[in-house]
Sequence to fold (498 residues):
Amino acid sequence: MAYQMCTVQSATIRGVVALPVTVEVVISSGIPSFSIVGMPDAAIQESRERVKAALRSCGFRMPNDKIVVNLAPGSLRKTGSGFDLPIALALLVATGQIDPSVVKDALIIGELSLEGTISSVTGMLAYQFCAQKYNLRLITGSYGGGLVAMKGIDTFVADRLSRFRYTDGLTLVKKDINPSASHGADFGDVYGHEGAKRALQVAAAGEHGIIMVGPPGSGKTMLARCFASILPPLSQQRRLEAALIHSVVGGEISAILAGRRPFRMPHHSASSAGLIGGGTPVRPGEISLAHNGVLMLDEFPEFKPSVLQQLRQPLEEGVVRITRADGTYEMPAHFILVAAMNPCPCGYYGDPDHECSCSPHQIQTYQNRIGGPLLDRVDIQVDVYRASHHDLLTKAAGKTSDELAQGVQKAQAFAASQGRRPGQGASRLSDALACCQLAHDATSFLESYAQVHHLSARSIIKVLSITRTIADIDQENQSSLEHLSEALLLRFRGGDGL
Fold:
Protein backbone atom coordinates (compact mmCIF):
# COMPACT_ATOMS: atom_id res chain seq x y z
CA MET A 1 0.00 0.00 0.00
CA ALA A 2 1.01 3.65 -0.44
CA TYR A 3 2.42 5.59 2.49
CA GLN A 4 -0.34 7.75 4.00
CA MET A 5 -0.01 10.56 6.51
CA CYS A 6 -2.09 13.34 8.05
CA THR A 7 -1.40 15.99 10.69
CA VAL A 8 -4.03 17.77 12.76
CA GLN A 9 -3.87 20.14 15.72
CA SER A 10 -5.08 19.34 19.23
CA ALA A 11 -4.14 20.39 22.78
CA THR A 12 -3.67 19.11 26.31
CA ILE A 13 -4.34 20.72 29.69
CA ARG A 14 -1.34 21.57 31.86
CA GLY A 15 -2.43 23.17 35.11
CA VAL A 16 -5.09 25.62 33.91
CA VAL A 17 -3.61 26.24 30.46
CA ALA A 18 -4.19 24.31 27.24
CA LEU A 19 -0.94 23.73 25.34
CA PRO A 20 -0.98 22.89 21.61
CA VAL A 21 -0.23 19.31 20.53
CA THR A 22 0.34 18.14 16.98
CA VAL A 23 -1.32 14.79 16.21
CA GLU A 24 0.56 12.96 13.42
CA VAL A 25 -0.94 9.80 11.94
CA VAL A 26 1.07 7.56 9.64
CA ILE A 27 -0.41 4.49 7.89
CA SER A 28 2.12 2.18 6.24
CA SER A 29 2.54 -1.43 5.20
CA GLY A 30 3.53 -3.94 7.82
CA ILE A 31 2.04 -6.11 10.52
CA PRO A 32 -1.41 -4.63 11.41
CA SER A 33 -1.07 -2.60 14.59
CA PHE A 34 -2.25 0.61 16.21
CA SER A 35 0.22 2.38 18.48
CA ILE A 36 0.28 5.81 20.12
CA VAL A 37 3.56 7.45 21.13
CA GLY A 38 4.48 10.83 22.62
CA MET A 39 4.02 10.37 26.39
CA PRO A 40 0.26 9.59 26.39
CA ASP A 41 -1.54 8.67 29.59
CA ALA A 42 -3.77 5.62 30.05
CA ALA A 43 -6.89 7.43 28.80
CA ILE A 44 -5.17 8.26 25.52
CA GLN A 45 -3.91 4.71 25.09
CA GLU A 46 -7.48 3.46 25.51
CA SER A 47 -8.62 5.74 22.68
CA ARG A 48 -7.42 3.11 20.20
CA GLU A 49 -10.40 0.90 20.97
CA ARG A 50 -12.86 3.80 21.04
CA VAL A 51 -11.62 5.08 17.67
CA LYS A 52 -11.86 1.66 16.04
CA ALA A 53 -15.42 1.04 17.27
CA ALA A 54 -16.59 4.57 16.45
CA LEU A 55 -15.29 4.45 12.86
CA ARG A 56 -17.03 1.15 12.17
CA SER A 57 -20.28 2.24 13.85
CA CYS A 58 -20.46 5.33 11.61
CA GLY A 59 -19.84 3.36 8.41
CA PHE A 60 -16.20 4.32 7.90
CA ARG A 61 -13.44 1.90 7.01
CA MET A 62 -10.82 1.16 9.63
CA PRO A 63 -7.49 0.54 7.84
CA ASN A 64 -6.05 -2.91 8.47
CA ASP A 65 -2.43 -1.76 8.31
CA LYS A 66 0.31 -0.47 10.56
CA ILE A 67 -0.89 2.75 12.23
CA VAL A 68 1.37 4.98 14.29
CA VAL A 69 0.05 8.07 16.08
CA ASN A 70 2.62 10.56 17.33
CA LEU A 71 1.70 13.31 19.80
CA ALA A 72 4.25 16.12 19.50
CA PRO A 73 6.13 17.53 21.29
CA GLY A 74 7.26 14.23 22.74
CA SER A 75 8.63 15.81 25.93
CA LEU A 76 5.20 17.06 27.03
CA ARG A 77 3.02 14.65 29.01
CA LYS A 78 -0.47 14.40 27.49
CA THR A 79 -3.60 13.60 29.47
CA GLY A 80 -7.33 13.15 28.92
CA SER A 81 -9.71 11.56 26.46
CA GLY A 82 -9.95 14.60 24.18
CA PHE A 83 -7.54 13.07 21.65
CA ASP A 84 -10.14 10.56 20.40
CA LEU A 85 -11.62 12.94 17.82
CA PRO A 86 -8.36 14.33 16.37
CA ILE A 87 -6.94 10.80 16.01
CA ALA A 88 -10.11 9.58 14.27
CA LEU A 89 -10.27 12.56 11.90
CA ALA A 90 -6.58 12.26 11.05
CA LEU A 91 -7.16 8.60 10.16
CA LEU A 92 -10.14 9.50 7.97
CA VAL A 93 -8.23 12.23 6.13
CA ALA A 94 -5.18 10.00 5.66
CA THR A 95 -7.34 7.27 4.11
CA GLY A 96 -9.26 9.73 1.92
CA GLN A 97 -12.64 9.13 3.55
CA ILE A 98 -13.35 12.80 4.40
CA ASP A 99 -12.37 16.14 2.88
CA PRO A 100 -9.04 17.51 4.29
CA SER A 101 -10.57 21.02 4.44
CA VAL A 102 -12.69 19.88 7.40
CA VAL A 103 -9.64 19.76 9.69
CA LYS A 104 -7.62 22.59 8.11
CA ASP A 105 -6.73 25.45 10.49
CA ALA A 106 -8.65 23.81 13.33
CA LEU A 107 -7.89 22.76 16.89
CA ILE A 108 -9.78 19.52 17.47
CA ILE A 109 -10.90 18.18 20.85
CA GLY A 110 -13.47 15.50 21.63
CA GLU A 111 -14.19 12.13 23.18
CA LEU A 112 -15.80 9.33 21.16
CA SER A 113 -18.27 6.73 22.29
CA LEU A 114 -18.27 3.25 20.81
CA GLU A 115 -21.30 4.25 18.72
CA GLY A 116 -19.56 7.30 17.27
CA THR A 117 -21.17 10.09 19.29
CA ILE A 118 -18.85 12.96 20.19
CA SER A 119 -18.70 14.63 23.59
CA SER A 120 -16.78 17.69 24.70
CA VAL A 121 -14.34 17.24 27.59
CA THR A 122 -13.51 19.23 30.71
CA GLY A 123 -11.56 22.42 30.18
CA MET A 124 -13.30 23.58 27.01
CA LEU A 125 -12.73 27.24 27.85
CA ALA A 126 -9.01 26.56 28.10
CA TYR A 127 -9.10 24.99 24.64
CA GLN A 128 -11.01 28.00 23.32
CA PHE A 129 -8.33 30.34 24.64
CA CYS A 130 -5.66 28.14 23.04
CA ALA A 131 -7.43 28.20 19.67
CA GLN A 132 -7.87 31.96 19.94
CA LYS A 133 -4.17 32.45 20.68
CA TYR A 134 -3.08 30.47 17.62
CA ASN A 135 -5.83 31.83 15.34
CA LEU A 136 -7.52 28.44 14.83
CA ARG A 137 -11.10 27.25 14.70
CA LEU A 138 -12.18 24.94 17.51
CA ILE A 139 -13.99 21.70 16.66
CA THR A 140 -15.47 19.60 19.45
CA GLY A 141 -18.49 17.52 20.40
CA SER A 142 -21.88 18.23 21.94
CA TYR A 143 -21.78 20.65 24.85
CA GLY A 144 -23.79 21.87 27.80
CA GLY A 145 -22.51 25.00 29.53
CA GLY A 146 -18.83 24.56 28.78
CA LEU A 147 -18.58 26.73 25.67
CA VAL A 148 -19.32 30.38 24.96
CA ALA A 149 -19.13 32.57 21.89
CA MET A 150 -15.78 34.37 22.06
CA LYS A 151 -14.40 37.16 19.90
CA GLY A 152 -11.74 36.09 17.46
CA ILE A 153 -12.62 32.40 17.41
CA ASP A 154 -15.23 30.25 15.67
CA THR A 155 -16.28 27.22 17.70
CA PHE A 156 -18.00 24.34 15.91
CA VAL A 157 -19.66 21.27 17.38
CA ALA A 158 -20.79 17.93 15.95
CA ASP A 159 -22.87 15.29 17.70
CA ARG A 160 -21.63 12.29 15.68
CA LEU A 161 -18.52 11.32 13.79
CA SER A 162 -20.63 10.77 10.65
CA ARG A 163 -21.20 14.56 10.44
CA PHE A 164 -17.69 14.92 9.06
CA ARG A 165 -18.71 13.25 5.80
CA TYR A 166 -19.94 16.69 4.77
CA THR A 167 -18.04 19.95 4.82
CA ASP A 168 -21.12 21.74 6.18
CA GLY A 169 -21.97 19.17 8.84
CA LEU A 170 -20.77 21.28 11.80
CA THR A 171 -22.78 23.70 13.95
CA LEU A 172 -21.41 27.10 15.00
CA VAL A 173 -21.69 27.90 18.72
CA LYS A 174 -23.60 31.13 19.32
CA LYS A 175 -24.05 30.99 23.09
CA ASP A 176 -23.35 34.41 24.59
CA ILE A 177 -22.41 35.33 28.15
CA ASN A 178 -25.41 36.33 30.28
CA PRO A 179 -25.36 39.92 31.56
CA SER A 180 -25.80 39.41 35.30
CA ALA A 181 -26.64 37.03 38.14
CA SER A 182 -28.24 37.48 41.55
CA HIS A 183 -27.11 36.22 44.95
CA GLY A 184 -29.40 34.45 47.40
CA ALA A 185 -28.01 35.52 50.79
CA ASP A 186 -28.71 39.12 51.85
CA PHE A 187 -27.34 41.16 54.74
CA GLY A 188 -30.90 42.30 55.40
CA ASP A 189 -31.53 38.82 56.83
CA VAL A 190 -28.79 39.35 59.44
CA TYR A 191 -30.14 41.22 62.46
CA GLY A 192 -27.72 43.39 64.36
CA HIS A 193 -23.98 43.12 63.62
CA GLU A 194 -23.83 46.57 62.01
CA GLY A 195 -20.17 46.89 62.99
CA ALA A 196 -19.32 43.59 61.28
CA LYS A 197 -21.31 44.65 58.22
CA ARG A 198 -19.27 47.84 58.03
CA ALA A 199 -16.03 45.87 58.26
CA LEU A 200 -17.19 43.57 55.47
CA GLN A 201 -18.16 46.58 53.34
CA VAL A 202 -14.63 47.97 53.72
CA ALA A 203 -13.20 44.55 52.89
CA ALA A 204 -15.34 44.34 49.75
CA ALA A 205 -14.55 47.89 48.61
CA GLY A 206 -10.79 47.35 48.83
CA GLU A 207 -10.72 43.57 48.33
CA HIS A 208 -9.11 43.14 51.75
CA GLY A 209 -8.85 39.83 53.54
CA ILE A 210 -10.82 39.66 56.78
CA ILE A 211 -10.96 37.41 59.86
CA MET A 212 -14.08 37.35 62.05
CA VAL A 213 -13.51 36.17 65.62
CA GLY A 214 -16.39 35.29 67.92
CA PRO A 215 -18.19 32.63 69.95
CA PRO A 216 -20.28 29.84 68.42
CA GLY A 217 -23.63 30.97 67.04
CA SER A 218 -22.67 34.63 66.76
CA GLY A 219 -23.39 34.75 63.02
CA LYS A 220 -19.90 34.63 61.52
CA THR A 221 -20.75 32.04 58.87
CA MET A 222 -23.98 33.80 57.90
CA LEU A 223 -22.13 37.09 57.50
CA ALA A 224 -19.52 35.39 55.33
CA ARG A 225 -22.18 33.80 53.11
CA CYS A 226 -23.68 37.24 52.50
CA PHE A 227 -20.32 38.80 51.63
CA ALA A 228 -20.41 37.99 47.93
CA SER A 229 -23.77 39.78 47.59
CA ILE A 230 -22.12 43.20 48.00
CA LEU A 231 -19.30 42.60 45.53
CA PRO A 232 -19.74 44.19 42.10
CA PRO A 233 -20.40 41.75 39.23
CA LEU A 234 -17.35 40.51 37.40
CA SER A 235 -16.32 42.16 34.15
CA GLN A 236 -16.48 39.96 31.08
CA GLN A 237 -12.72 39.39 31.06
CA ARG A 238 -12.64 38.42 34.76
CA ARG A 239 -15.64 36.12 34.24
CA LEU A 240 -13.71 34.22 31.60
CA GLU A 241 -10.60 34.05 33.81
CA ALA A 242 -12.57 32.55 36.70
CA ALA A 243 -14.71 30.28 34.51
CA LEU A 244 -11.57 28.92 32.82
CA ILE A 245 -10.33 27.41 36.10
CA HIS A 246 -13.71 25.86 36.93
CA SER A 247 -13.92 24.51 33.38
CA VAL A 248 -10.59 22.70 33.79
CA VAL A 249 -11.88 20.77 36.82
CA GLY A 250 -15.26 20.09 35.24
CA GLY A 251 -17.17 22.51 37.48
CA GLU A 252 -20.32 24.48 36.70
CA ILE A 253 -19.50 27.79 35.01
CA SER A 254 -22.88 29.22 33.99
CA ALA A 255 -23.25 31.32 37.18
CA ILE A 256 -19.71 32.69 36.82
CA LEU A 257 -20.30 33.54 33.16
CA ALA A 258 -23.41 35.39 34.32
CA GLY A 259 -21.24 37.59 36.57
CA ARG A 260 -21.50 35.85 39.93
CA ARG A 261 -18.23 35.69 41.79
CA PRO A 262 -16.94 32.27 42.84
CA PHE A 263 -17.57 31.45 46.51
CA ARG A 264 -15.52 28.53 47.81
CA MET A 265 -15.93 27.12 51.31
CA PRO A 266 -13.68 24.08 51.76
CA HIS A 267 -13.93 21.91 54.87
CA HIS A 268 -11.15 22.30 57.42
CA SER A 269 -9.98 18.74 56.68
CA ALA A 270 -8.78 19.90 53.23
CA SER A 271 -5.35 18.65 52.22
CA SER A 272 -2.56 20.76 50.80
CA ALA A 273 -3.34 19.57 47.26
CA GLY A 274 -7.04 20.26 47.78
CA LEU A 275 -6.56 23.80 49.07
CA ILE A 276 -3.43 24.97 47.24
CA GLY A 277 -3.41 22.65 44.23
CA GLY A 278 -1.40 19.62 43.16
CA GLY A 279 -1.98 15.94 42.51
CA THR A 280 -1.20 13.89 39.39
CA PRO A 281 -1.84 15.46 36.98
CA VAL A 282 -1.58 18.82 38.71
CA ARG A 283 -5.02 20.37 39.27
CA PRO A 284 -5.98 23.77 40.70
CA GLY A 285 -6.94 23.88 44.36
CA GLU A 286 -9.61 25.84 46.20
CA ILE A 287 -7.60 29.06 46.22
CA SER A 288 -7.45 29.03 42.41
CA LEU A 289 -11.13 28.06 42.15
CA ALA A 290 -11.80 31.17 44.26
CA HIS A 291 -9.91 33.37 41.76
CA ASN A 292 -11.73 36.72 41.33
CA GLY A 293 -14.09 35.64 44.11
CA VAL A 294 -14.24 34.71 47.78
CA LEU A 295 -12.45 31.99 49.75
CA MET A 296 -14.32 31.32 52.98
CA LEU A 297 -12.36 29.37 55.60
CA ASP A 298 -14.67 28.52 58.47
CA GLU A 299 -13.14 27.16 61.69
CA PHE A 300 -9.86 28.75 60.60
CA PRO A 301 -7.58 27.28 63.32
CA GLU A 302 -8.91 23.76 62.63
CA PHE A 303 -7.09 23.63 59.29
CA LYS A 304 -3.71 21.95 59.42
CA PRO A 305 -1.07 24.59 60.23
CA SER A 306 1.18 23.26 57.46
CA VAL A 307 -1.65 23.81 54.96
CA LEU A 308 -2.55 27.27 56.24
CA GLN A 309 1.03 28.52 55.98
CA GLN A 310 0.99 27.82 52.26
CA LEU A 311 -1.56 30.62 51.87
CA ARG A 312 1.06 33.25 52.64
CA GLN A 313 2.62 33.59 49.19
CA PRO A 314 -0.68 33.47 47.22
CA LEU A 315 -2.18 36.14 49.49
CA GLU A 316 0.72 38.44 48.66
CA GLU A 317 1.14 37.74 44.95
CA GLY A 318 -2.27 36.52 43.77
CA VAL A 319 -0.74 33.46 42.13
CA VAL A 320 0.29 29.97 43.25
CA ARG A 321 3.34 28.18 41.85
CA ILE A 322 3.65 24.42 42.16
CA THR A 323 7.00 22.90 41.26
CA ARG A 324 7.18 19.32 40.02
CA ALA A 325 9.81 17.23 38.25
CA ASP A 326 8.36 18.19 34.86
CA GLY A 327 8.42 21.93 35.58
CA THR A 328 6.59 24.69 37.42
CA TYR A 329 2.83 25.10 37.22
CA GLU A 330 1.56 28.65 37.71
CA MET A 331 -2.13 29.18 38.47
CA PRO A 332 -3.97 32.41 39.32
CA ALA A 333 -5.20 32.82 42.90
CA HIS A 334 -6.39 36.41 43.38
CA PHE A 335 -9.12 35.96 45.97
CA ILE A 336 -10.64 37.74 48.96
CA LEU A 337 -10.04 35.69 52.10
CA VAL A 338 -12.93 35.64 54.56
CA ALA A 339 -12.08 33.56 57.62
CA ALA A 340 -14.08 32.80 60.75
CA MET A 341 -12.84 31.37 64.01
CA ASN A 342 -13.60 30.88 67.66
CA PRO A 343 -11.20 32.64 70.05
CA CYS A 344 -10.46 29.42 71.96
CA PRO A 345 -11.23 25.66 71.92
CA CYS A 346 -14.48 26.07 73.87
CA GLY A 347 -15.32 29.19 71.87
CA TYR A 348 -16.25 31.56 74.71
CA TYR A 349 -13.04 33.40 75.54
CA GLY A 350 -13.94 37.09 75.88
CA ASP A 351 -17.68 36.43 75.69
CA PRO A 352 -19.42 38.67 78.27
CA ASP A 353 -22.38 36.28 78.54
CA HIS A 354 -20.64 32.92 78.83
CA GLU A 355 -17.66 31.84 80.93
CA CYS A 356 -14.65 30.35 79.14
CA SER A 357 -13.49 26.94 80.39
CA CYS A 358 -10.08 26.97 78.66
CA SER A 359 -6.73 27.50 80.37
CA PRO A 360 -4.43 30.32 79.16
CA HIS A 361 -2.14 27.68 77.66
CA GLN A 362 -4.99 26.12 75.68
CA ILE A 363 -6.08 29.52 74.38
CA GLN A 364 -2.58 30.46 73.29
CA THR A 365 -1.94 27.07 71.66
CA TYR A 366 -5.24 27.30 69.77
CA GLN A 367 -4.56 30.79 68.44
CA ASN A 368 -0.96 29.93 67.55
CA ARG A 369 -2.22 27.36 65.03
CA ILE A 370 -2.77 30.23 62.60
CA GLY A 371 0.70 31.68 62.94
CA GLY A 372 1.80 35.31 63.10
CA PRO A 373 3.17 35.57 59.51
CA LEU A 374 -0.14 34.45 58.01
CA LEU A 375 -2.21 36.61 60.36
CA ASP A 376 -0.07 39.62 59.42
CA ARG A 377 -1.09 39.17 55.78
CA VAL A 378 -4.82 39.37 56.51
CA ASP A 379 -5.81 43.04 56.46
CA ILE A 380 -8.87 43.21 58.72
CA GLN A 381 -9.71 41.51 62.03
CA VAL A 382 -13.09 42.04 63.64
CA ASP A 383 -14.87 40.70 66.74
CA VAL A 384 -18.35 39.29 66.18
CA TYR A 385 -20.52 38.74 69.26
CA ARG A 386 -24.04 37.39 69.41
CA ALA A 387 -26.75 39.89 68.53
CA SER A 388 -28.99 41.00 71.37
CA HIS A 389 -32.24 39.15 71.95
CA HIS A 390 -34.09 42.39 71.29
CA ASP A 391 -32.58 42.67 67.80
CA LEU A 392 -33.35 39.04 67.07
CA LEU A 393 -36.92 38.89 68.34
CA THR A 394 -37.99 42.30 67.04
CA LYS A 395 -36.18 41.74 63.74
CA ALA A 396 -34.44 45.09 64.07
CA ALA A 397 -33.84 46.39 60.58
CA GLY A 398 -30.22 46.81 59.53
CA LYS A 399 -28.40 47.59 56.34
CA THR A 400 -29.24 45.38 53.40
CA SER A 401 -26.88 44.03 50.76
CA ASP A 402 -28.11 46.62 48.27
CA GLU A 403 -27.31 49.48 50.62
CA LEU A 404 -23.85 48.12 51.41
CA ALA A 405 -23.19 47.34 47.75
CA GLN A 406 -23.88 50.95 46.78
CA GLY A 407 -21.05 52.08 49.04
CA VAL A 408 -18.74 49.43 47.57
CA GLN A 409 -19.54 50.47 44.01
CA LYS A 410 -19.07 54.17 44.77
CA ALA A 411 -15.71 53.47 46.44
CA GLN A 412 -14.45 51.40 43.52
CA ALA A 413 -15.70 53.94 40.98
CA PHE A 414 -13.93 56.72 42.90
CA ALA A 415 -10.72 54.69 43.05
CA ALA A 416 -10.95 53.99 39.31
CA SER A 417 -11.32 57.72 38.62
CA GLN A 418 -7.99 58.17 40.44
CA GLY A 419 -6.32 55.47 38.37
CA ARG A 420 -6.43 52.81 41.09
CA ARG A 421 -8.14 49.43 41.24
CA PRO A 422 -9.37 47.39 44.23
CA GLY A 423 -6.83 45.04 45.72
CA GLN A 424 -3.92 46.94 44.19
CA GLY A 425 -1.76 46.93 47.26
CA ALA A 426 1.48 48.87 47.43
CA SER A 427 4.63 46.88 48.04
CA ARG A 428 6.66 49.90 49.18
CA LEU A 429 5.89 52.20 52.09
CA SER A 430 6.58 55.32 50.02
CA ASP A 431 3.99 54.23 47.44
CA ALA A 432 1.42 53.48 50.17
CA LEU A 433 1.92 56.92 51.74
CA ALA A 434 1.62 58.66 48.38
CA CYS A 435 -1.57 56.75 47.58
CA CYS A 436 -3.16 57.29 50.99
CA GLN A 437 -2.53 61.07 51.15
CA LEU A 438 -2.78 61.29 54.94
CA ALA A 439 -3.68 64.60 56.53
CA HIS A 440 -0.97 66.15 58.72
CA ASP A 441 -2.62 65.25 62.05
CA ALA A 442 -3.26 61.70 60.80
CA THR A 443 0.41 61.32 59.86
CA SER A 444 1.53 62.40 63.33
CA PHE A 445 -0.92 60.04 65.00
CA LEU A 446 0.16 57.06 62.86
CA GLU A 447 3.82 57.77 63.65
CA SER A 448 3.12 57.74 67.38
CA TYR A 449 0.93 54.63 67.17
CA ALA A 450 3.51 52.73 65.11
CA GLN A 451 6.26 53.58 67.58
CA VAL A 452 4.26 52.58 70.66
CA HIS A 453 2.97 49.32 69.18
CA HIS A 454 6.16 48.46 67.23
CA LEU A 455 4.38 48.08 63.90
CA SER A 456 6.25 46.42 61.04
CA ALA A 457 6.48 47.99 57.61
CA ARG A 458 3.90 45.48 56.33
CA SER A 459 1.45 46.41 59.08
CA ILE A 460 1.83 50.11 58.30
CA ILE A 461 1.23 49.43 54.61
CA LYS A 462 -1.88 47.40 55.47
CA VAL A 463 -3.20 50.20 57.70
CA LEU A 464 -2.63 52.75 54.95
CA SER A 465 -4.38 50.51 52.44
CA ILE A 466 -7.47 50.16 54.66
CA THR A 467 -7.41 53.90 55.33
CA ARG A 468 -7.38 54.59 51.59
CA THR A 469 -10.37 52.29 51.10
CA ILE A 470 -12.39 54.02 53.84
CA ALA A 471 -11.59 57.40 52.27
CA ASP A 472 -12.73 56.02 48.90
CA ILE A 473 -16.07 55.01 50.43
CA ASP A 474 -16.44 58.63 51.60
CA GLN A 475 -15.13 59.75 48.18
CA GLU A 476 -12.38 61.87 49.71
CA ASN A 477 -8.99 62.45 48.07
CA GLN A 478 -7.25 63.04 51.38
CA SER A 479 -7.40 60.52 54.21
CA SER A 480 -8.38 62.11 57.51
CA LEU A 481 -7.60 61.16 61.10
CA GLU A 482 -11.10 59.71 61.33
CA HIS A 483 -10.40 57.41 58.38
CA LEU A 484 -7.10 56.34 59.94
CA SER A 485 -8.69 55.67 63.34
CA GLU A 486 -11.31 53.38 61.82
CA ALA A 487 -8.60 51.58 59.85
CA LEU A 488 -6.61 50.93 63.04
CA LEU A 489 -9.71 49.57 64.77
CA LEU A 490 -10.34 47.22 61.83
CA ARG A 491 -6.73 46.14 61.54
CA PHE A 492 -6.12 45.43 65.24
CA ARG A 493 -9.59 44.46 66.57
CA GLY A 494 -10.05 47.65 68.53
CA GLY A 495 -6.43 47.72 69.68
CA ASP A 496 -6.22 44.09 70.71
CA GLY A 497 -4.88 41.21 68.69
CA LEU A 498 -5.05 37.46 68.58
In short: The longest helix spans residues 401-417.
